[in-house]
Amino acid sequence: MKNKKIGFITIGQSPRTDIMEDVRKIIPENIEIIEAGALDQYSHDFICKNFSPGENDQFLVSRMRDGSQVEIAEEKIHSLLQNCVDHLNEKSCNIILMMCTGKIPELVSKVPILPPQKILHNIMKNIGFQGKIGVFIPEKDQETNIRKAWNSMGMEIFPVFASPYGNIDNIRKEALLLDNEDISVIFMDCMGYSEKMKNMVYEITGKPVIIPRTMIVKIALELI
To answer: Is the pTM of this model over 0.85?
Structure first.
């Protein structure tokens, strides 16, 4: 039997060394990882001029190859995401993971594409925790859209704000805010949040903490 392949799509640039640091720990050695980034072929200046969100645009936060943060208007990268899917299909991936917790457009693929927002929000809704969910959000300007996504599933959130691509002390400060709130579980709503960040938030709050990058990979491993 041929080795299985998992395709990873980032809305920023690949390789995502930050994500893979955690992901490779749980993926067996006989499974090949193939990465693709929507913005792989573009320079930072080009991205800022052509993909930055306007005043009323919904936007996503991701990471450039050099580790810097980038904000991207959702509607401007749909075709680029399809290009990534096509590339991973050509590479004979068995399953594709969209490494973004934002709203992702419908994409055409020969193999399953796992959309983290739909899957993980449904898990959080049905997992049995009572009360509010503490949610880490990268940027304050994303609050309205992220709150709407959670509320549409019938869940109430208490949001805090700290980018996974900035100073980790900001995450620590926001975790202290959650420590005093009546919440049952914490969801760090971006693929950029790491195991290190998760463990730090848990140590401060004593609450269960979920990061999307490892949860969605574990689901993919069950499927292949």
So the answer is: yes
Q: Among candidates 122, 95, 71, which has minimal Cα distance to 9? A: 95
pLDDT in tens, 17-61: 999 999 999 999 999 999 999 999 999 899 989 988 887 778 888
For residue 163, give the CATH number of its domain: 3.40.50.12500
Residues whose CB falls within 8 Å of the CB of residue 148, separated by 6 or more in sequence, listed in order: none
Beta bridge partners of 6: 33, 95
Asked if the model's pLDDT at residue 12 lies above 80, the reply is yes
- 23 and 110 in a single domain? The answer is yes
Examine the domain organization and report whether 103 and 134 are in the same domain: no
Range of the domain at 101: 5-115+214-223
- Rounded to 5 degrees, φ, ψ at 15 are -80, 150
CB 171, CB 200: distance < 8 Å: yes
Residue spans of alpha helices (H) in the chain: 17-23, 44-50, 78-90, 116-126, 143-151, 168-179, 195-205, 212-223
Q: Domain count of the chain?
A: 2
Closest CA to 189 of 169, 163, 167, 219: 163
d(CA 72, CA 78): 11
